[in-house]
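Example S7 (structure tokens).
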């Protein structure tokens, strides 16, 4: 049985996703001991099997998504937009805190007891929605005030609901939307206005919230603390994660100290998710960490190649938005681990332990593959009609 007969789309993307996913089993297994210690329950093998199960479900999501004709995603996004909006509102109103800081990122489904991060679902839905908007208005003159109501109001609603508990995700989502808008041909003079409005809105939010002593204000203090620490002006105690990550990378050298032999995994917070790249560098050295970086660069190039090959404007926008979101998150994660960027709390796509973040990554890749599969059908039709 030839498995390639059952998969469609860009085979290189399939291969890269498969390689990264299978490799993820090694660092997740290595760092599972930290999860056992932090959570206080479970076993190393138990967390590994859980990760394998989550990745397996992710591949199932990606597989069935890539079989769906991509033109249907526009209608699906419109249907789920109000549902996700309600989920974001519910998540934001929970009032949960960690160490006094706002942590409204997850909701738990009743009876099932399953938790998921609503912002990851919202990001995918919003990018499909924005892609659909520009696709339908490709040959129309976009009026600024009309776009405010139909495009930017939904964008600001999603970003605004995510912002209080997750600054990095909201900023990255806004960056992707603005870049997508520029790529789609949105008037540059309007785009500058949107950027200025976004900056003003964020500043106004900070000023208003700082005047009130609550959990959101404490979260803002965390944002400033991380930036100050990055530039060397903050409390040394807040620089703990970055310093431990740098130590892990330095200990790895060129070829690393060996799989599963990390000494920093039990002292580095979030070693299985946000800082897993540092553990990879420690265990597999510069060679291993650069290999991961190289695979993401190849993935980025395949995304750009498929954007160029796609004839449908909606298809182009889908590949561009999903690919940019995934690659940006990967580069931000690696930038944080290596000390190039302030701490953000972003996992490494396809490698970090997680749940909904992994599944939404596979969903995004499935959407990309759906478009590339359609490109292959168009190519076959052209050859048959010659």
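Recovered sequence:
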């Amino acid at each position: 049985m030839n498995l390639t007969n059952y998969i469609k789309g860009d085979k290189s993307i399939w291969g890269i996703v498969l390689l990264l996913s299978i490799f993820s089993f090694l660092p997740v297994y290595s760092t599972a001991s930290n999860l056992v210690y932090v959570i206080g329950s479970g076993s190393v093998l138990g967390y590994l099997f859980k990760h394998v199960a989550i990745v397996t479900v992710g591949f199932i999501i990606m597989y069935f998504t890539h079989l769906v004709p991509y033109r249907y995603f526009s209608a699906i996004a419109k249907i789920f937009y109000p549902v996700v909006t309600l989920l974001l509102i519910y998540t934001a109103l929970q009032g949960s805190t960690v160490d006094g800081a706002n942590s409204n990122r997850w909701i738990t489904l009743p009876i099932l007891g399953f938790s998921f991060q609503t912002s990851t679902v919202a990001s995918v839905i919003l990018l499909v929605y924005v892609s659909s908007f520009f696709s339908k208005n490709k040959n129309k003159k976009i009026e600024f005030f009309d776009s405010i109501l139909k495009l930017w109001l939904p964008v600001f609603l999603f970003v605004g609901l995510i912002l209080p508990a997750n600054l990095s995700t909201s900023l990255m989502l806004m960056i992707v939307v603005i870049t997508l808008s520029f790529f789609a041909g949105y008037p540059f003079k309007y785009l500058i206005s949107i950027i200025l409005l976004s900056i003003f809105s964020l500043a106004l939010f900070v000023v208003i919230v700082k005047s009130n002593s609550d959990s959101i204000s404490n979260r803002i203090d965390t944002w400033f603390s991380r930036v100050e620490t990055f530039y060397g002006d903050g409390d040394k105690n807040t620089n703990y994660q970055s310093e431990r990550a740098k130590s892990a990378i330095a200990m790895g050298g060129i070829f690393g100290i060996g799989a599963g032999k990390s000494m920093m995994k039990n002292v580095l917070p979030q070693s299985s998710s946000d800082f897993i790249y540092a553990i990879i560098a420690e265990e597999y050295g510069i060679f291993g960490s650069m290999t991961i970086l190289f695979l993401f660069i190849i993935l980025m190039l395949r995304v750009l190649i498929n954007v160029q090959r796609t004839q449908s404007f909606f298809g182009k926008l889908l590949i561009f938005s999903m690919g940019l979101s995934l690659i940006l998150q990967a580069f931000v994660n690696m930038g944080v681990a290596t000390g190039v960027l302030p701490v953000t709390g972003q996992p490494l796509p396809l490698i970090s332990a997680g749940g909904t973040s992994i599944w939404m990554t596979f969903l995004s890749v499935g959407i990309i593959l759906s478009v590339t599969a359609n490109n292959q059908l168009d190519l076959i039709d052209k050859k048959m009609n010659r």
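Notes on this example. The two ends are 32 Å apart (CA to CA).
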